[in-house]
Design brief:
The structure is a homodimer. With about 325 residues, chain A is of the alpha/beta class. The first copy, chain A, is built from 13 helices and 12 strands. Chain A has 3 domains: about 50 residues, 434 Repressor (Amino-terminal Domain) (Orthogonal Bundle); about 130 residues, Response regulator (Rossmann fold), CATH 3.40.50; about 130 residues, 3-Layer(aba) Sandwich (Rossmann fold). In chain A, strand 9, helix 12 and strand 10 form a beta-alpha-beta unit. In chain A, helix 1 crosses helix 2, helix 8 packs parallel to helix 9 and helix 10 crosses helix 11. Chains A, B: One of its GO terms (molecular function) is transcription cis-regulatory region binding.
């Protein structure tokens, strides 16, 4: 016999509502109660994602995580952690890839999965503040990653400006004087690259150095191939940099490969810092210095936000997740 | 006004059934007809994944792709390609991660997503032939990757035995005589590692060389950390290998890092071959020689299988996707 929500409630001596709150990860359950309910769930082999559906219309136990690219190591890592964090709350995550396509982002934003899921975790690329303002779908929504001037939407991100400033300051503190930035995206709607550029410039200014347009290298995408090409361009310039801050680890790993091809030793002649702390950078030779966003915390905060929206209607909230600079062998 | 299937059929001058066949990527539509229907779909801005649902009960325009780890570069790459291949057929893929957990694999196998999706592409880790034989859910299902003795289930995979034999033969042809295999998984239910070991041994035997248990290194998982540790173990042995065939690129990249830490030059003192052709291996220094499964073809074949099951009931089919050895700088 399959255990029902009611069976768990009886077994734990609590209300059906309380079991539901535990299953859905809502915050306002006392830890002792939560523990008792979880013990009953385990004892009865209760499967929340099927049975919770009967609680009220629209409760499916499923969440959507919408990302531009599932094969970007950063998003793949974040997705795997989000799946596990949700699993711990009895929720299942379905991962969806938009390729950053504006139409697909818009359709998802406006409820294309509303009948399937209880909430959407959304990492937008092409979505504009106007798209967000025009949203009428009421499925709980949390944006992941930075987005400029987002009205009326919950939001979890790290402080990209501060992180980029720290990464650049780390290079300057080591005595580097010509620090390039690889990852500028002048035509992108995504705010992340813009904020990392702001942090980079702020560090230069704080050190009394001018910003130099020749050292701010635009890229098409944030992939290895782009970093590889950007590094070759920089090394071809009349006055090459002695350090590079790359806006993603993928860019930095492409740049590292290019430096190797040109016989430029890292870190002696060229220091490199990436961003994202993907596993790849831990095993490269030399291992990559990088900014590590706390991805487990981002996943947990995002789930907290969804649960809070479902339980406590109120104004949208923004939460900043922590990050830290991991110094390895490229600096 | 939202375009309906019927509108597309009228616009294209074909039956609703034909539009549905095009939308679902069924094979038995003449190319000219397919083209005409696609033009009408584009002209009317028809959204198959919503409207196709009205065609018959259970048609959602959604597919599930179930993988053990979304953050494994191989599965992330395969997932991204599958999403795009499905997109080209007007279908949406939801990606789900099992962590190779036997219970979750079993629940998905037995219909945990049956009400949401039209088909399941499933890369199992812990599933046994008995689990498959016990399946009663009728949602179209295609297994991705090797699985020993799978009864009654469609199947798309590369020839892992042949691929591993070629990778090992490539090392032997270069004059290497002590070729290790990293990636043996004696306790795993997954057949992939077993088949790659079979291919490795076959190549040794064909070259008149004995197999040596000391050169067959078991690993816990197929990740970078496992390859890193395995390589250190091999280099600590009294008679280290002059070449290593790793069963995944992740293992090989971990091994490459370990070789660098020990000052063992690659490829001169140690040649390395990986498996999977993940992007990471294209940008490592030295770039990784690897077996490249045709992932686009795997995705396309898997979708063909689903469409075929939906349109033409019949006995299960197995299809082999192509692979090739990419020789780069580690050999």
């Amino acid at each position: 016999m399959t255990a029902k929500l009611r069976d768990v409630a009886e077994h734990a001596g609590v209300s059906v509502r309380t079991v539901s709150n535990v299953v859905n990860g809502f915050a306002h359950v006392a830890p002792a109660t939560r523990q008792r309910v979880q013990a009953s769930i385990d004892a009865l082999g209760y499967r929340p994602n099927l049975a919770a559906r009967t609680l009220r219309r629209g409760r499916t136990g499923l969440l959507a995580l919408v990302v531009p690219e599932v094969d970007s190591p950063y998003f793949a890592d974040l997705a795997a952690r989000t799946v596990r964090a949700a699993q711990a709350r009895g929720l299942t995550v379905l991962v969806e890839q938009t390729d950053g396509d504006a139409d697909r982002e818009k359709r998802l934003l406006h409820g294309d999965r509303a009948h399937l899921v209880d909430g959407v975790l959304f990492s937008p690329w092409a979505t504009t503040p106007a798209d967000l303002a025009a949203r009428t779908d009421t499925t709980p929504l949390v944006l992941l990653g930075e987005h400029d001037g987002t009205p009326g939407v919950d939001h979890v991100a790290i402080d990209n400006v501060a992180a980029a400033r720290e990464a650049t300051a780390h290079l300057l503190a080591a005595g580097r004087t010509r620090v390039a930035a690889v990852g500028v995206q002048p035509h992108s709607r995504n705010a992340t690259a813009r904020q990392r550029l702001t942090g980079y410039r702020a560090a230069l200014t704080a050190a009394g150095l001018p910003t130099d347009p020749a050292l701010e290298v635009p890229v098409h995408r944030l992939h290895r191939a782009d970093g590889h090409q950007a590094m070759h361009t920089l090394l071809d310039s009349p006055d090459p940099p002695d350090a590079v801050f790359c806006f993603t680890d993928e860019l930095a790993l492409g740049a590292l490969r290019a430096a190797g091809e040109r016989g430029v030793p890292v870190p002696t002649a060229l220091a490199l810092v990436g961003f994202d702390d993907i596993e790849d950078g831990r095993y490269s030779t030399p291992a990559l210095t990088t900014v590590s966003p706390d991805k487990d915390r981002i996943a947990d905060l995002a789930l907290d936000h969804l649960a809070h929206q479902a339980s406590t209607p109120g104004p949208p909230r923004s939460t900043t997740a922590p990050h830290r600079l991991l110094v390895r062998e490229t600096t």
